[in-house]
Design a protein that fits this description.
Elements: H1 2-26, H2 36-54, H3 59-77, H4 86-89, H5 95-112, H6 115-125, H7 131-148, H8 151-167, H9 174-190, H10 199-210, H11 217-243, H12 263-280, H13 282-285, H14 289-292, H15 294-302, H16 308-312, H17 316-334, H18 337-343, H19 352-369, H20 372-384, H21 392-403, H22 413-419, H23 426-454
Helix pairs in contact: 1-2, 2-3, 2-17, 3-17, 5-10, 5-15, 6-7, 6-8, 7-8, 7-9, 7-11, 8-9, 8-22, 9-11, 9-22, 10-20, 10-21, 11-23, 12-15, 17-20, 19-20, 19-21, 20-21, 21-23
Length: about 450
């Protein structure tokens, strides 16, 4: 079945790629007043979108396809000397990539020293026999870890602790489903809390940097706080309603937390706290978030907390995919495609808030069916080109919207990880996922926009 889907994706991708390239080379698009460079930019964007959606090739390989086409095909269509090749390669080595490299390194160190597991078990042990307290503890822990670590790794780690509990419950007990759903929902919601919580956040930061309007780490957390807290409580309440358990005591049996921490574990905790403080105090020391992210990389590998095997095990594919998405944004801008698209959008007929909602709903809808990172890569460059007086809240809204898509197993990596446990069906995920997706969009574009205005980030 998997092979059949892969072959189908490759056939679809190949047909679309051949069709688009044929249109560009035949000059058919000249009739719509599109420059040669813009036509090439459109072809590269469609090729990348199709490859990302069908996964006909590995997602990170699509990033190199974008870079290769930009350096050869697009550079040949642009006037000589107008754009340097480094313009397309620099996104792969940007501040955002460094920021996520630091986040991945923190995640690897905390996991190797079992500090993430220690925190999760500590919370679960203190839930007692209350299903409500247990679920709240699982969700708060998952959301908190997802703010600072990979939400994918967080979901996998917490799931390994939750599964023994769900397996001890009787077959047919709806508490099993609710407790399992708590993990991906909390991971998705927690991802909006910090700039490093999810790839769409980091991609939005890259475009905010081009506008000289990057919110500080603490400011991003302040902007996300109402959406995160309300959505986390809403998810908790919804899952309790679906739970069906009426106050019966819940037997929780997890291994005890080891009382003694090693020296390397204490060092890992110290470096993690210093890195968090460095991110939060960026307005005081003036260092970029990516520069601060070098601290765990240098400390953990230099002091042998992590070794070369751990270095090879970092999520390099995600970093390259993000770099390719940022490169695609440069392609859309430098080719003139963004200007061409904006000229044909009915931006004059709707207000900025309505336009922000439309773009956010589009981003969320696309993220339900494809990678939210790829969606952000495709939507954010177009937002930049809209020529809005205040594009920053719209960019942040798109990042939030991408993370709020959680109705299908394929919508987010945490969804897919928990679904792979074999204890959930698509139907279990669909109804609560749709409700939370709609609620997340409503929160982002009501309370979120109002709160951002209070903080000085009005649309």
């Amino acid at each position: 079945m998997v092979d059949a889907r892969r072959w189908a994706g490759q056939i679809v991708a190949g047909a679309v790629v051949v069709g688009v390239v044929s249109l560009v080379l035949s000059g058919v698009l000249d009739a719509v007043d599109m420059s040669d460079a813009a036509q090439v930019g459109l072809a590269i964007m469609v090729i990348a979108g199709v490859l990302w959606m069908t996964e006909a090739v590995p997602l990170f390989l699509t990033a190199f396809v974008v870079l290769g086409l930009a350096l050869t095909w697009l550079m040949g269509a642009l006037p000589d000397g107008s754009v340097a090749g480094a313009t397309f390669t620099s996104p792969f080595f940007s501040n955002i990539i460094l920021l996520f490299l630091g986040g991945f390194t923190l995640s690897a160190a905390l996991h190797k020293q079992r500090l993430d597991e220690r925190l999760a078990r500590w919370v679960i042990q203190r839930a007692g026999g209350s299903m409500a307290r247990l679920m709240l503890g699982v969700m708060v822990t998952t959301a908190f870890l997802s703010m600072w670590l990979s939400n994918t790794a967080t979901a996998a780690m917490v799931l390994s602790i939750v599964l023994p509990i769900t397996n001890s419950l009787p077959a047919g007990d709806r508490a099993r489903t609710s407790l399992l759903l708590a993990v991906p929902f909390a991971a998705n919601i927690g991802g909006v809390g910090t700039p490093i919580g999810s790839p769409p956040n980091a991609i939005a930061l890259q475009y905010l940097a081009e506008l000289d309007a990057v919110p500080g780490f603490a400011m991003w957390m302040a902007m996300a706080a109402p959406v995160l807290v309300v959505m986390l409580l809403a998810a908790w309440g919804l899952l309790l309603l679906l739970n069906g358990r009426r106050g019966e005591p819940l037997v929780i049996n997890v291994p005890p937390v080891e009382s003694k921490m090693s020296g390397r574990a204490w060092l890992t905790l110290l470096v993690t706290l210093l890195t968090m403080l460095g991110w939060l105090a960026s307005g005081l020391h003036g260092l970029a978030s990516g520069t601060v992210a070098l601290l765990p990389v240098l400390a953990f590998f230099g002091l042998r907390v992590l070794d070369s095997k751990d270095f090879r095990g970092l999520s390099w594919d995600v970093l390259f995919m993000m770099g390719g998405g940022l490169c695609l944004g440069v392609v859309v801008m430098q080719s003139g495609l963004a200007d061409w698209l904006v000229e044909r959008l009915p931006t004059d007929s709707v207000g900025p808030i309505a336009l922000a909602v439309i773009v956010g709903v589009l981003a969320c809808g696309m993220s339900l069916m494809m990678s939210n990172t790829a969606t952000a890569n495709l939507i954010l460059p177009i937002v930049i080109g809209l020529g809005l007086a205040s594009p920053s809240p719209v960019l942040i809204g798109v990042a939030f919207s991408c993370s709020m898509a959680m109705a299908l197993p394929i919508s987010t990596p945490p969804n897919a990880i928990v679904f792979s446990s074999g204890q959930l069906s698509s139907r279990d995920l669909l109804l609560p996922g749709i409700l939370l997706t709609g609620g997340g969009l409503a929160m982002t574009y009501t309370i979120g926009l109002l709160w951002w205005g209070v903080l000085g980030w009005s649309v």
